[in-house]
Amino acid sequence: MKNRNMKKRVLVATGGGDCPGLNAVIRAIVNRAGKEKDWEVIGSINAFDGILNEPQEIVVLDDKKVAGIHIRGGTIIGTTNKGGPFAWPIKDNEGNWTSADRSDEMIRRLQYLGVEAVINIGGDGSQKISKMFHEKGANFIGVPKTIDNDLSATDFTFGFQTAVQEATTAVDKLVTTAASHNRVFVLEVMGRYAGWIALNAAIAGGADVALIPEIPYDLNRVVDKIDSRFDGDRGFAIIVIAEGAKPVNGDIHFKESNEVGYNKVRLGGVATKLINELKEIGVKTDMRETVLGHLQRGGTPTAYDRILATQFGVKAFEMVLEKKFGQMVAYHHPNIVSVPLEEAISQYNFVNPGSDLVKAARGVGICLGD
Questions:
Q1: What is the DSSP string of 44-104?
Q2: Is the confidence at residue 2, as pLDDT, over 90?
Q3: What is this structure's pTM?
Q4: Catalytic-role residue among 18, 124, 148, 208
Q5: How confident is the model at residue 92 (pLDDT cuts 50, 70, 90)?
Q6: Does 161-297+352-363 match 8-158+301-333 at the fold level?
Q7: Which CATH architecture has domain 161-297+352-363?
Q8: Which band of pLDDT confidence, cut at 50, 70 and 90, is reported for residue 307?
Q9: Which CATH architecture has domain 8-158+301-333?
Q10: Which of 16, 40, 276, 368 is the most exposed place for a label (fewest CB within 10 A)?
């Protein structure tokens, strides 16, 4: 794909799990670049696979291509959370999967395409890749993306508020069916090792129990809360549990993944596990689980996430113009700023058990399992 018009090129890639607001970032980058006469935006299909695949899968992103996409979930250039330039999956002669470092090759391919800078939109794993390329001398800029809100260098990541809204809607709907049947409902939400989605949805939806990774739970405390919500066999209770929650002196519930190129454990199943644990210690109340799953990361982004994503996209391209490579866009209320990639990935953003948000949850009577 030769750059016939001799414009400077910036390449955009979206990596990791999909997230509401990705298209709004892409649109903002393209629209902001359109104000500069000598710039062109291209996209790599499915993260950096589009650069490394044969044939390459590269698309020119212009104003017509991105018109109206800000209201759509997902990403028009695709994404993947498997493999990557530094760990490209390959099968050896015996049929076994291994990996190869193709980062140097990717840099050469970017140079051939006339790419002046790369805007890498993704979460912790994607920004680690951005940092590694920056250390190799490539011009990389990061844009933080994750529904889990687990990047500490930014106040919020886009996609998080949409995920919280979806989880809150689920809590609202479970209240009516739980009350109708005198049941306990356990809603399992995403978040990996951080409890932001679970805690926010529990407060917004008025749940009775919120179990998050940062506060290991005592089953007896959960039982006490359930009992307080029933008068004999009448009553109901809603429990929101993060997929990374664990009991006191217990471990996170996960399965090893056998997917080629996927280097994370698969969390999930904690709702069913919790119900089984409660039954084992004598809870007789009818209990049902609901696993929200990927519904949290799909669909139309909220207005908040569209605005934040748009701010991130504009800032990212302006960082290209300013040659602020090796940096990531961040939201430090009320400003959109840039921070070094090293700082961006240095610390995981856990919920602080002593924070005002946790105090508010406790103040309205939500049991946190401790």
A1: ESTTTHHHHSSS--EEEE-HHHHTTGGGSSS-TT----S--TTSEEEE-TTS-EEEE--HH
A2: no
A3: 0.92
A4: 148
A5: confident
A6: yes
A7: 3-Layer(aba) Sandwich (3.40)
A8: very high
A9: 3-Layer(aba) Sandwich (3.40)
A10: 276
